[in-house]
Structure formats: C-alpha cells, structure tokens
C-alpha cells in the first residue's frame, strides 16, 4: 500500500507519503483499488494522537476509513463480488486506512456502489451512512410519525441523518446556524432551529441524535419527551459535559446510547438501497486530490467544524 499518513502524531504537517505492506488476500477478502476516500473528524483526531488509548496503532499509519473503489482481486470463498465491481465501504478502524492506492478488506464489510454515483459521491457515504443507520434504526428504533431532533444538521452526519429520518417517515427538526437554515430545510427538515438565534420550539421529541455534546446537547434536552431516546456520537473526552446534564437526563428518564460506528456490509446495502430509491443523496462539500497537499487542506477544513456535508479526496490515477 502506498498512501498518505503519519510516522508520528502531530498537526497536518505530519501528513506524508507512507508505504506499508498490503495485507495478503484471505479467502473471505477483497483487494480493492481505491478511487476516492472520505475525510472525517476521526482522521485528524487519530493524526493528533487523541485516540491513542482506544487505538494503539503501530506507526507508520495510513489514515482514512471511508472509501469507494474497484475490486481488483477476490478471495476463494467470496461469491457476491467479482473483479471489476465498483464498491463502497468502511474498513476496520484498527487497520491501515483508505488514503491509499489499494486495501485488502473482508467482503462482509463491502457493498456494491449505488448506481448513478461518482466515486467521490460514493466515498462520502460509508461513515455517515453507517453512523446514522446505527443511531436511528438500531439505537433509536425510529418509526413513522416519530419526532426526531438532529443536532448540527448541516454537517456530514447531520445532513445524512435528516434524509434518513425522513425516509423512515419521521418528523424531523435540526439545529444549525442562521446562514445554513435554507440548506438544512432543502435536505428535508420539517423544522429548523437556529442556535445563533436561541433554540426555541414547542415540539417535544421522541429521539435525538447528538453530534455535538457539551452545552449544545444540554440546551436541547429541554425539548425531549419523557422516556425519549438519545443516541450520541460524543464520547466523554470529546466535549465538556455541563454539571446539570445528568439531572435533566434523569428527570426526563431518557435512555442515552453511545454510538461508535462499526463497519457492516449489510448496513451499507441499506444505504445503497436508499440512494437508489432516491430517498437520500450524498452531500459533498469539496473534492480535493488524494495528495499530501490535498489531505492537509482537507484536515484543516474538517477541523473548522464548519463544513456543509463531506470532504472527499479523489484518486484520479
């Protein structure tokens, strides 16, 4: 594998060309030539060393865990894919990533690329699609008519969550800034709450997807019904938790579930089906080249926390 990654933890200047052995192809694996790689906050958190306790990587490490590409070789037990198939996938976080020319990955984590998408569009979907599916469907059991609140509706996860929640038949409200209200409404939100105008609604919600944590999460708790469900992607180290949150969660008898995205080919197929049914669409903010300069720019953009949708690195080779 030739890719972009790190030999030591640090800022984006640590990103450089990294060469590591490609894993041998096992009987249940695919070798995939990578065409595009999605960029996610977890990428720069790994680069900075913020996740060392959870993922004690052996450096050097190729970053990125979100991709699309073309099957280049197939393990002897694999029946569902053949050489030349276009696919999209999220590999295991514990292993080398997708800012690379190729990767070996279990076929069980892969799905056919949705028809009609570019490689860049498809590469924007795996992490956000899996996160949202596992939060709304598996953790939240969102049903038609449920009232759903999504924090940060214009971000990568939020923009996908609005669409999936609508596809599930929910009433959807989302928070965002004033300047992004129209963007969020166009994604399908029934109600848009501007955090820079003071959150205000008379709606009481059955489910919340928390992508922010901290005071933003705390401020939204007052809108939750008793016995509602919250799915959060924010771990304890990612945001300061105001003291009052525990009391509010207890008073409203909320069920709070932490979601850390797992790779899953069956879930990927659910996302593919929604795309092909035109229920959801990729939201790509910017496509940059899969080069050192492109990756550095992508990380700087991601770290602003102000990106609409997803950033993608495209490998045009």
UniProtKB/TrEMBL annotation:
CDD domains: MDR_like_2. One of its GO terms (molecular function) is zinc ion binding. Residues 10-313 form the Enoyl reductase (ER) domain. This is Oxidoreductase. It comes from Paenibacillus durus ATCC 35681. Coiled coil: none annotated. The keyword Cytoplasm does not apply. Keywords: Oxidoreductase. The keyword Protein biosynthesis does not apply. It comes from the Bacteria.
């Amino acid at each position: 594998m030739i890719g972009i990654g790190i030999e030591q933890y640090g800022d984006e200047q640590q990103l450089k060309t990294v060469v590591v052995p490609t894993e041998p192809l096992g009987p249940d694996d695919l070798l995939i030539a990578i065409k595009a790689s999605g960029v996610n906050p977890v990428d720069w958190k790994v680069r900075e060393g913020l996740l060392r306790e959870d993922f004690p990587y052996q450096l050097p490490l190729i970053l990125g865990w979100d991709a699309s590409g073309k099957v280049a070789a197939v393990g002897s037990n694999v029946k569902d894919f053949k050489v030349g198939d276009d696919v999209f996938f999220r590999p295991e976080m514990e292993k080398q990533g997708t800012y690379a020319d190729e990767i070996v990955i279990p076929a069980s984590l892969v799905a056919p690329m949705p028809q009609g998408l570019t490689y860049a569009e498809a590469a924007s979907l795996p992490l956000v699609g899996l996160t949202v599916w596992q939060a709304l469907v598996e953790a939240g059991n969102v049903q038609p008519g449920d009232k759903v609140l999504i924090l940060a509706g214009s971000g990568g996860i939020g923009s996908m969550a609005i669409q999936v929640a609508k596809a599930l038949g929910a009433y959807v409200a989302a928070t965002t800034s004033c300047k992004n209200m129209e963007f969020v409404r166009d994604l399908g939100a029934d109600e848009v709450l501007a955090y820079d105008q003071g959150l205000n609604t008379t709606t009481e919600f059955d489910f919340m997807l928390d992508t922010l944590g901290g005071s933003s999460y705390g401020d939204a708790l007052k809108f939750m019904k008793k016995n509602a469900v919250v799915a959060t992607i924010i771990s304890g180290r990612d945001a300061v938790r105001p003291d009052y949150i525990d009391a509010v969660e207890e008073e409203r008898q909320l069920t709070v579930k932490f979601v850390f995205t797992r790779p899953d080919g069956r879930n990927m197929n659910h996302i593919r089906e929604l795309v092909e049914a035109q229920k959801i669409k990729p939201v790509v903010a910017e496509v940059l080249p899969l080069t050192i300069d492109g990756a550095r720019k992508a990380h700087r953009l991601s770290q602003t926390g102000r990106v609409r949708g997803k950033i993608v690195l495209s490998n045009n080779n």
